[in-house]
Design goal:
This protein is mainly α. Helix content is 75%, strand content 0%. It has a domain at 27-277. The chain has twelve helices and no strands. It is elongated.
Length: 361
């Protein structure tokens, strides 16, 4: 508490230069973590709402990537508890104790890694999604390498924090280098994922208005989901190198993990919004085929049967419907791009082999 501060009512006490920063500029020193904790709590509410929406509509999905979604939500909740504990320790337990605030305490050790791990989980999801889209080694190798550098630097950052908390001055140098490396590599990974995803989607435009509009929506979704984390990471990197006499770098650092978490849940929940458009595209593309009597559509022709089948396109067994026609390969390719990017269904390898077999025949 305040009566623990040795300089209180002690005219012979000489505060350190760092103590004087807290005493003379409390807004720049105490404001950033307090503001970060407030915004983090608001983002946690948004994340809870998004996670509830995900559980409500995608509880039974079978893809292994669902565990990345659950892990991101759990890690963000743990981060919130940790930051509340960190803030309570600074603003309540040691209120007015400028000496305690000026030193690197053990409770501050996990600040860096608490943002790195949840962010890495979200980036792993995006790398896997882009790999399912393109199967391009020129993308996946640098993306994974940058992710490994990010996580490795975060571990080194934690090690430097432990050293600094133990009074070893070399730990502060390690913290500076590792923090810059973590933020820079994470930012590069984000930009690489976003740019490559948008490039690959635009490259596969079909020339058909319906499928091209669908690709445009996917590009828009990719940019929207990446904008928040990229901007926050960039601000964090800039403030880390410019904040020599204040702690404003803590504000973006504290909220970064939850920005990634909200971005990830926004992406997976966006599948529901794309569902109606994808069904419309499949119906329109298949419905324009010439009428031919089939077992399931003798009265309405192929168009009627395709319309009925397209309504169940989100069920894995119905995915084979996408390759039931060879008359519009370009429009169907646009649909496959959509499915690969947003739905990343379990049976995509089967779909690809089926489509290749249809093309050869």
């Amino acid at each position: 508490m305040v009566n623990h501060y040795p300089g209180l009512f002690n005219s012979s006490y000489h505060p350190s230069p760092i103590e004087l920063l807290f005493i003379q500029t409390p807004v720049d020193q105490l404001g950033p973590p307090l503001l970060g904790q407030i915004v983090l709590t608001l983002l946690q509410g948004v994340l809870f709402a998004q996670y509830y929406e995900y559980l409500l509509h995608f509880w039974e999905e079978k893809r292994w990537t669902k565990w990345l979604v659950h892990a991101a939500a759990a890690l963000c909740a743990i981060k919130l508890i940790y930051i509340w504990w960190f803030t309570w320790d600074r603003f309540v337990n040691h209120y007015g104790d400028w000496l305690y605030l000026s030193i690197f305490t053990p409770i501050s050790v996990a600040i860096g890694i608490s943002s790195t791990i949840p962010s890495a989980v979200a980036q792993t999801f995006y790398i896997h999604r882009c790999w399912m889209l393109s199967h391009n080694w020129f993308f996946v190798v640098p993306a994974i390498l940058s992710l490994i550098v990010t996580v490795g630097s975060g571990i080194v950052l934690t090690w430097g924090s432990v050293m600094a908390a133990g009074g070893i001055l070399r730990g502060f140098r390690i913290i500076t280098i590792a923090a810059n490396t973590t933020l820079a590599s994470g930012l590069i990974c984000d930009l690489f994922i976003t740019i490559f995803t948008c490039y690959y989607l635009v490259k596969n435009k079909t020339g058909f208005a319906q499928t091209d509009n669908l690709v445009f929506r996917l590009v828009k979704c990719s940019i929207e989901s990446a904008a928040g984390p990229t901007i926050v990471a960039l601000i964090n990197l800039i403030l880390t190198n410019r904040s020599t006499n204040n702690q404003w770098f803590l504000f973006p650092n504290i909220i970064l993990s939850h920005v990634y978490g909200c971005s990830l849940l926004y992406t997976v929940n966006a599948r529901r919004n794309v569902a109606g458009t994808l069904t419309t595209v499949v119906t329109g593309s298949l419905g324009s085929c010439p009428r031919s009597p089939t077992k399931t559509g003798r009265e309405n022709g192929t168009a009627g049967a395709a319309t009925k089948r397209s309504l169940g396109i989100w069920r894995p067994r119905s995915l084979r419907t996408l390759t039931s026609t060879e008359r519009h390969p370009q429009s169907m390719h646009g649909v496959l791009v959509e499915v690969q990017t947003i739905l990343h269904e379990d049976q995509l390898p089967t779909l690809a082999r089926t489509k290749a077999g249809d093309s050869n025949s």
